[in-house]
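Entry 0007
Protein: Transport permease protein
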Amino acid sequence: MQGLLRSLWDYRFFILSSIKNDFHSRFVRSKLGGFWVILQPLSQVLIYAFILSNLLSSRIQGVEGPYGYAIYLMAGLLAWNLFTEVLDRCMKVFVSNANTMKKVKFPRIALPIIAIGSSIVNNVVLFVLINVIFLALGHAVTPLIGFYFLLVPIVAILAAGTGIALGVINVFVRDIEQVVPIIIQVLFWFTPIVYPANVVPEAYTKILSLSPIYVLVESYHAIFVFGTVPNLAPLAAVTALGLALCGLALFLFRRASADMVDVL
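Output (structure tokens):
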């Protein structure tokens, strides 16, 4: 572990410059800049709001106005997009950078760190743009949105632990890339993003609440939609789970790193 941390520190400028280059390629060199970051979640919001707004708006208690459902959607998607982007990029990072790993000498664990950092930067830009939209829609933005900066590392840790472990396995079993998106799609519909949790029967709500993603999304809803402090006890449990998954991922990475380049 100390060796991994030391190597990351020694290559810190490489990691930071890679994150910076990713940001420049996405925002600075693009004519529409940050608009691309919000285009996908905004299109999802427009589609779901058009179809489900009249049906579900009245079920979101504590949110008034014609845009309550759209605000609820955007808050949930902010959490979901960070989780899925970190997981997806970490899962594919070793396969996608196979040529780099073969030709350039550097600590390979830097690759998922760069992916995580770039995903967080993208999500922070989305966070800023969503708050601008909230203000434009007349939704009050409270100081409690500062909890966002506590939730981001929790989401990233959980997604990174899962993604890096899957990324190592993906080097040897390429079916992982095909199976995981299906699981993610199922998980999306079992998480109260498109619908509020109170539309689900209580017996099923207790089952859904066992999902760490459920805890994270509800925490985002608390600070962005309802202006309340998130429940910290479940967040602590999710953090512990994320750290455990990161430990497992690093164990798998160290055991497999010697063979990864040969397989790739």
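Curator remark: The chain has a mean pLDDT of 86. Residues 2-263 form one domain.
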